[in-house]
Amino acid sequence: MNANRPALVETELRCGETAVEAPLACDAGLVFIGRVRTPWLERGQCPRRGDLEGPLCRLEVDEIWRPALRGVSAGAMIQVLYWMDRARRDLVLQSPRSASAPVGTFALRSPVRPNPIAVSDALVVEANESGLLVRGLDCLDGTPLLDIKPASCPAWREPS
Amino acid sequence: MNANRPALVETELRCGETAVEAPLACDAGLVFIGRVRTPWLERGQCPRRGDLEGPLCRLEVDEIWRPALRGVSAGAMIQVLYWMDRARRDLVLQSPRSASAPVGTFALRSPVRPNPIAVSDALVVEANESGLLVRGLDCLDGTPLLDIKPASCPAWREPS
Question: Whole-model pTM above 0.95?
Answer without folding.
Answer: no
